[in-house]
Structure formats: C-alpha cells, structure tokens
User: What shape does this take?
Amino acid sequence: MGELQDGDLIRALKALADPTRFRMVQEIASAGELSCSEVTGCFNLAQPTISHHLKVLFEAGLLVQRAEGKHHYTSVNQDLLEAIGEVLPARLVKRKRKRG
Assistant: This one.
C-alpha cells in the first residue's frame, strides 16, 4: 500500500466513527471472513441498512470482498488498518516549527 493520503485516512476514520460500522468491522475481523448473510445475521437491522453500512465501509477501503460462485465473502483490509495505525499517531503530534 502506498502513502496513505489525508483524505483516505479521514474517509476511513469517518466510516469507523459510526458505532454500527465499527462493530461490523470488529465482527468481520473476528471471524476472518463473513458472507453477506452472515454479516446480516450478526445485527438486528434490516438488510438495506446492513447494505448501506457495508457500502460505506467498502468505499472507505476498510473492507474487501471476494466472490466464490454466487457467494461474496467480506474481510477486513488489514493493509489499510495497519497503515492507519502507523500514520495516525505521526499526523497528530505537535511538530516543531522551523525558526528562520
């Protein structure tokens, strides 16, 4: 994964800021991989609501999907999560100003 741009970082953090989406990522990460129906089974929400949240997470790059026949399996984009963990602390620390 290349350099994580501020816009990509902000999009991912905004997606994770929603409690339902945060829990979805937790559930998927815990399982390693879940089908769409398995994700739906983890929540007491209507299927269109689940789809909306998954769409936001996919668009933010937090989830990846693979197809196997008619089924789609979702997993967490570990590369992105690791990149966030690396760059976030560095981007939020006080930087010394150059005096000239």
In short: The chain has a mean pLDDT of 92. Residues 6-90 form a domain with the Arc Repressor Mutant, subunit A fold (CATH 1.10.10.10). Strands lie at 34-35, 63-68, 71-76. Residues 78-91 form the longest helix (14 residues).
